[in-house]
Amino acid sequence: MTWNEHYQQLTTGLHPAQRRPLIGITGNYEDGRCTLNEGYYKSVREAGGIPVVLPPERYDMETLSEWLRPLDGLLLSGGADINPLLLGEEPIEALHGVNPERDLCELLLARMASDRQLPILGICKGVQVLTVALGGTVLQDIWTQHEGTRLKHSQQAPRDLATHSVSLAPDSLLFQIYGKESIAVNSFHHQAVGTAGPLLRVCGLAPDGVVEAVEASDHRPIVGVQWHPECLADKCLFDWLVAEGRLYRESRQIHDDVLTLDSHCDTPMFFDLQIDFTSRDPRIKMDLHKMAEGGLDACIMVAYLEQLGRTPSELEAATHKADRLLTEIEAMVARAPEAVGIARTPDDLLHLKHEGRKAIMLGIENGYAIGADLANVERFRRRGVVYMTLCHNGDNDLCDSAKGQAEHGGVSDFGAKVIQEMNRVGMMVDLSHAAEQSFYDALDISRTPIVCSHSSARALCDHPRNLRDDQLRSLARAGGVAQVTLYPGFLRTVPTEATVLDAVAHLDHMIGIMGIDHVGIGSDFDGDGGVPGCNDASEMLNFTRHLLRRRYSADDLRKIWGENFLRVMREVQAAGCCIDK
Predict the structure, then answer these.
(1) What is the DSSP letter of 261?
(2) How far from 203 is each of 80, 136, 173, 195, 222, CA to CA, in Å?
(3) Within 340-386, where are the H helices?
(4) Which residues are 222's β-sheet partners?
(5) Distance (Å, rounded) from C-alpha 284 to C-alpha 264?
(6) CA 306 – CA 308 distance, rounded (Å)
(7) At what angle do helices 469-477 and 436-445 cross, to 10 degrees?
(8) Residue 326 and residue 268 in contact, taking contact as beta carbons nearer than 8 Å
(9) Helices 236-257, 38-46: inter-axial angle, 10-degree rounding
(10) Percentage with pLDDT > 90 across the chain
(11) Which of 89, 340, 371, 472 is exposed most, by the fewest CB atoms within 10 A?
């Protein structure tokens, strides 16, 4: 056929509207040319993806960001040795040729792709780039730097011939992908992974102990292999990458379409460190970069007050501290008005999302902040505070805490007046941290629904801060919401074992007890919240990915990610006086 006949054929009839995953493949660089072995792009295409080649470029952050924006997955291809100078090392004699056109670009690209939760597959040089980008190390030459007798890792056999075996860890993602503990691979390398670093785990070893595969240690879609699967008949790694790309695109689309709200974070606790909210600050888990990477539209940032003494001067100091922290949050937001704004109502959140800006709402953690003056409730509401927890870790003048001494036997007389005043002015009553009797007392006293902004299920982790099933049922009957938290100690009895899968399990349980209309997510980031797989705001997208795996619908996710919580906020604010109208 002529080219025009081909064109007519392509434009006849209707084509499916669903886009196939777009997989970026890093190109090699040889003799002034961008090159790529056809096995890479053919394997991606055969797996159902659309391959696009990313040419080697010198450092340009804007270009790298634009490359990643439309991608649904990243494939780091093979090539020359990594320049050890970029790793702070001097080259040893056995080092082969390096490729300055590729190395810095790909290290940055791999790290940025990981920050954005993109699925990543590294092959040969790609697994080494991936490892270094995520904090691990590479051996410049395995025959020089690895102890023991080596196998022939630089085979002279044809590339489509497997020449040695690799053992896969039985609890690994790679084992799930291949369905067996030992596979045969081809090998063309003299460098290899030295140590996997904090974000990866070794999951495949050659018989001589050389690392042949790594994967994410935190349930994220990241895999790196030392062999060349694009040359072998087995294409399951490419099927995995494209399938994960499809799931990533679906997750990202949901975050684009719905209002995503984290109902509790404690970032102001780090204000004394002069944090930079506009940069990707490693000291905090909630900043503008991480919110953008994780597709998080809004968070409720609290002025947290430790429970201290209750003399008149100490109560007055608590009120002053709450005001100071709220002022500092406002000042932080005011420094980047083009990127973020303060929201007081659900409609404000929607307006800011429409404008492409992130939103911060104000909260208070610990009713200790109002001191002994009931008028502070309205004053804080007029400042924009949307909720206040009645207490924190310790009884106060309002109620008993889950970690207190049952001083009042529940909510005090003054606490009842505070709840009634919060109802009057349209401020949500938050019962996270409250004792069980305080919880039930507050439900009886409040004439509007209440919230638990960061609490999990006691049936799964027997911690007094968590909610029993009867509490969850009572909360739902009253129209309230409970937001699953990412604080490890509220997810597992052995906190160091907690992961994002535990947070999802708690959410599943809460939905089973309360129904889909009464749950949400309150991370407690920067208040020791965060678990592997959802450790900061940039990884919120990963939470959605795991919920999609469990067949939650887009409508379910819209409710979980904010609609439920905002329904209560609207009802509470509508029932209050006209502060926000």
Answers:
(1) E
(2) 24, 14, 8, 12, 12
(3) 346-354, 375-382
(4) 120
(5) 14
(6) 6
(7) 10
(8) no
(9) 60
(10) 87
(11) 89
Residue 581 has pLDDT above 70, yes or no: no
Q: Which two tokens stand for residue 136?
A: 């691990």
Distance of alpha carbon 26 from alpha carbon 22, whole angstroms? 13
Alpha-carbon distance 63 to 222, whole Å? 23
Arithmetic mean of pLDDT, 381-398: 97
What CA dihedral angle connects 485, 486, 492 and 494, to 10 degrees? -140
Q: How far is CA 222 from CA 36, 66, 74, 172, in A?
A: 22, 21, 10, 12
- Cα–Cα distance between 38 and 41 in angstroms, integer? 6
Q: Judge whether 399 and 439 are in contact, CB under 8 Å.
A: no
How many beta carbons lie within 10 A of that of residue 441, not counting itself?
24
Side chain identity, residue 363: G
- CB-count burial class (<10 Å; 0-12, 13-18, 19+) for 549: exposed
Alpha carbons 523 and 500: distance in angstroms, whole number: 11
* Side chain identity at residue 411, one-letter code: V
Q: For tokens 């080596």, what's the residue?
A: 150
pLDDT for position 580? 65
pLDDT tens string 480-493: 999 999 999 999 99
Q: Which helix (H) or strand (E) holds 242?
A: helix 236-257
Contacts of residue 518, Cβ cutoff 8 Å, sequence gap at least 6: 472, 475, 476, 480, 481, 482, 510, 564
pLDDT, average across residues 94-111 = 90
Q: Which residues pair with 342 in a beta bridge?
A: 360
Residue 143: partners with Cβ closer than 8 Å, 6 or more residues away: 94, 150, 190
